Amino acid sequence: MVKEINNRGLACPQPVINTKRALEELEQGTVISIVDNEAARENVTRFAENAGCQVEVTEKNGEYYIAITKGEGNKEVAIVKTSGETAPLVYLLTSNTFGNGAEDLGETLMVSFFNSLLEKPAPRMIMLVNSGVRLAVKNSRVLEQFNKLAERGTEVIACGTCLDYYKLKEELAVGRVTNMLEILENLTGQDKVITL
């Protein structure tokens, strides 16, 4: 079976996500992932090789056709599928941007981060402090991703003091309001905490 995926014009990590989903649907066969930039070519190729698949890349008119063969006797590493179970992870988000530097780039990277997070087991909790609370309010660029994580069991809590400071308490669209004591309890609990 051969399945073709058009990833032209898509920003990272969407070509990898689309390719991963297509491979999850196959017991064995070939997925041809078509990308139009070198970064996507490298990322999709690396993902497929790490998943134990055979990879062959062909360039045609500035586009890359990445033929990924799953099964058929090649050594296979299991591709992690998302499930309804949450992982023992707590994310502490202290900003509405990912990293320091240009704010618009940081916002774009945060969208990319959440799109990628949806491909992993859902974290047990996401805690939002400081400008991180902006991620869970109406018109947030990642509100759809937050809702999907909440549906999969992720608890989203937002600092009440921070919501008050930014005058956003009435705008909270996912999760619930919390306080510093609860945040501290989760920071010092048994789950692994990742701070962004």
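The above is record 1. Record 2 follows with the same two-line structure.
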Amino acid sequence: MNDADSGPLMSSYGQRLEASESTQSLLSRRGSEFGNRYVQIDDAGIYLSSLAVTILLSSVATIGILLFTLVVTLSVMLGSCQSQPMLLHGSWGEMIRAPPPRQEEARGNPCESFRLNAEMNNLQGWLLPRECSSYVGNYMINGQYLLDVEAAVGAARSYLETIAPGGDGLDAIVLDIDDTVLSNVPYYTEHQFGVEQYNVTAWNEWVDQARAPPLRSMLSLYRQMVDANWSMIFITGRPEQQRNKTAENLFKAGFSDWMSLNLRFQNEVGTTAVNYKSSRRMQLERKGYRIRASIGDQWSDLIGPAAGNRTFKLPNPMYYIF
């Protein structure tokens, strides 16, 4: 290629180079004129002002600070929840925060363990430990006992409402009396809630007064079952000599319209509660009664033959009868 031939090509290339240099020179001048306010980000020609860069960096820093604060706050809340467990409470199951346990409660309560194992029938033949008198007293009179009775009665009601008694009067519910339908809490309040040894003289004086109040939830269930044509049958460990006072107390407390009231005969006095009550239930079955449920505060009310389709135990940490 000669110089003549290359002349136009070089001229064209030179023009493009000059134009490019002129554009860069113009941008450089504009950058100088405006205080270097434009910054080239890449070769595509995208430019940001220094003010926009400052705003962008500030926004990123602010978001980072907020996220860090949120993480720290959640960590503190989680630690607080772990140190103070949440408990379900109330009729609607709303969440409430339980107070932290006192130091003396952190190791547990041996009297609570005693009460639990007594109700589970693990401590057969027990006598209430003297050191647990105040604990059991608080349980019996400060509301928890009545709540536990209501829960047991509610379970019995739920079951019995699913059964329609026949029209022959032979579908029966068997009930104990003492601390099942009649409450002896007033008596045991005067006798250290079971710490004292059983005193037959003091007990008989209490029975003869015929003033034991009803357990209200049991009275409600009793009246409901009577209205539904169930046959209500009492089997108590009280001796036959106390029949009149027992019947008087039942009437005063609101229990009436029973089918049968069974007390111990003289020849049954030395019999264990389990054998005595099982024997009486079997007699009822031989007469044609269908025992659908038994309710009592002692395991001896509920175990043995002919106890029925279902049994329901009411709480009683004050004494044990075998």
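Confidence is low (pLDDT under 50) at residues 1-39, 81-98.
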